[in-house]
Amino acid sequence: MSSRRKKLILAIVLIFTVNIFIIALAQYASAELYKKGSSGAVVREIQTRLKAWGYYSGAVDGVYGSQTEKAVRYFQQKNGLSADGQAGNNTLAALGIQTGGGKSGGSSGGGDVDLLARLISAEARGEPYEGQVAVGAVVLNRVKHPSFPNTIAGVIYQPWAFSCINDGQFNEPVSQSAYRAARDAMNGWDPSGGAIYYFNPAKATSSWIWSRPVIVTIGSHLFCA
Description:
This protein is mainly α. The chain has ten helices and five strands. The strands form two sheets. It has a three-stranded antiparallel β-sheet, with helices on one face. It has a two-stranded antiparallel ribbon with strand order 1-2. A hairpin with a 2-residue loop joins strand 4 and strand 5. About 8% of the residues have low confidence.
């Protein structure tokens, strides 16, 4: 093999290696991770949300200490995440926090679709497809309503808002129809007619929910203002 050909092959190999390194570096940079010892605005946001939802009782000081680590682990355990006490992309998405990596939060991000689909599957399993979309729409209507948190994760994880969070149904396998319903709801379809509540009259025990004005009935659910 000629010297010139060897140099050309070496140059190609070098370029290929550099490209692989750049791709790996970019993927590493996009992977957000907050853990014990981290600090800053994102840590403060993590603490704020965990505290609002009853997982954290410490100071909102932007310092990721032992209490924050313990609260994150508790949140992960309750919501079907890997419970390592570190806030990576999946945990940030579940918290509804958007960071520089761009993989969490946002009104149309994958994390939001997954969360909404999981709720729909748990709350509307066996319901007509329109009813599944309507459940997703209720979550989105709450995001826009001043009386509720302003993120999908905030609405879903608001204490005692949805029974499936507390009875374990939220962690069951998600149906494919629920993913479609989540996307349809996020794309603007609202069969609920703007409802911010729904309930199954065969199971409801709260007298308060019966006082809400009913907008529409879909399957087993009454959707209310």
